[in-house]
């Protein structure tokens, strides 16, 4: 135990994830977890997918697993989504142990908070808030599903999908995900509300709750709110226009259903991963567009993945600032520190490198698959999104291993991994500057 | 004339390119330029492709154009490759006019030199050096082609391909480019020597010529030499391994020819655009890998395109520096100014955005083409590379227009365009800094 604690925060985080996924795999492999026998690789795949709140599935969760198995999946999602760290701290609290700086630093790392103080308070809020939201949403979902499936199955379905949506897991218990509810207002509103709240980042919610005035909000909150709104509107418009007459997606729907479907498929790719239209039927243009949305992802410190919206915004703002011949990135009368540019650049580049390596590897193992489907699958796994054009179910054994690894990487975060490998060192000598040519 | 001079450097550069391409289009459309009638759009396409030294072709240059037409193409390549700017200054010199600061700034912009002084001298060197290299190479190529095609055709072919190679244009007068010379040492060595020299950047050559010692070389030169060597070796190894048993590319070649082909196809994608194996027959993994090479491109101030090798290196070094927890990018005991990071970031991001927009547009116009072929075509045009998996000849009218525009953008440089649109302004107010969360 002493040796375990001696690991640095990143190594500890990775260890905890590995242990949880292993336990999850064992539980899903239990005879009463599935109706029929499933392979170890599929149990590992589903456990990793649930723990990393991705939602990709090599077997159909609805028909493969028993209610017990589905409960395990829901628990893994909840553990993964809220963050093992918050759980670890909670267990420390419940055991009455004093929380040391080391654990608090670990939490800070996990939730990406800028100050150490108030972390514990935040985790308590986080826990209470999440459970409350999930319970309220469960009631709303039950309005639809109890009449449809009866009390016990209806409630369980409401419970499962409430957890899956709030934690941005994207798991659904129907083989075609939520396609049958494409025009259903309750399902569209409740599910998307859950994953937007879960994906915008807890700090944003706390900030909105405390300030209650746009002007007083922190820069981070303003960027997240405006960015989310603009990106969602653009995405909805794009999907609506491109897919309008595609018979495999929006073509045969009424105008109202077309709008619901465009809305849902616009907000879902940035980590939620649910779908109300067939991803395999989308136009290649839309598929490529969704790949970009999946890569950008949700908010920092949320249940979502991707490089994060603020990272993308900092890069975009840095580019615009450079083009305008200015030095400081100024938004809403605040200057963004240049160290954030370097951080955003590093996050984006490492992510691009990992995604490219993933695509190259999967291209080698999946000879039959088209390049675009492979690219979609890799970015979906890396951004822990869970959408698929249909490749997941056809993956080879090697392909499954690659996607498992990418989901793991995507959730742990490339930065965390790299930090754990590299030991930071102080600059000792400062060398003279020299200009080079770029562009 | 007065009004023309009042344009800022970027606008002037764009104007000159537009005029040259228009004149080129008219000349290629002349009855004695082609054996049969060609469409205006194809004349425009070839003129743009030659002037931007891209090498993509909607009609086969070898069989479509007469020797006169091919001469026009060679001239457009030479004008485009050496840079209209150097020509403009030369014309000014020849007319005995004093070169004003404005013209010198224009030159500086075009050649990406860090100081205004010595620009004119550089252009003179550039001109003499290029012609000399091209003439020497022409002699070597004639050794192969005069015996094969007779004196007049053999010399013309040597002349044409020497210009096409040195300027990284990638135009060849055989329908299958250089595939018939896959194992020919003379062609492999002379052609690749030409485009590597032409693509590494004139400043690097001058530096090597003057210093003649690696230790004394400028940081830019060191980065370019090391980067080019490492990237070429990695690329050769990659292509050799992936394509080794592919019957459509290396599979049926002898080991020696396999090595020549891997070498050639490794060094050519970073702007040269010649090919000795069938691009359409490559494994999807190799195609994707070549897309990355094409995006990176050649050296600053060279006849090549892409975001440039140093840009990619700065981004990579910045990422590594960040991961090591350091602030300064240190290479070879020199610190790279942080302003270069912002510049490299901006260049890369604008390029990515343009490429993405191009892919989305071409996806809409080319319904029949596969996504990977479209991606390849757009990056090839943007990096002014000229390789194609076969899509160029099948482009729709709208698709041709899009590729013409992308080649133009790729050569003029996204930065130049953006600078010409935006008017730089001084920072007036400095706002307080505020932290945000990324990643
Ligand atoms: K997900
Ligand atoms: K080229």
UniProtKB/TrEMBL annotation, chains A, B:
It holds the Pfam family TrkH. It is found in: Cell membrane. InterPro entries: Cat_transpt, TrkH. Its main location: membrane. Keywords: Cell membrane, Ion transport, Membrane, Potassium, Potassium transport, Transmembrane, Transmembrane helix, Transport. The chain crosses the membrane at residues 12-32, 71-95, 122-143, 155-174, 186-209, 221-240, 287-320, 340-362, 374-395, 402-422. It is a multi-pass membrane protein. This is TrkH family potassium uptake protein.
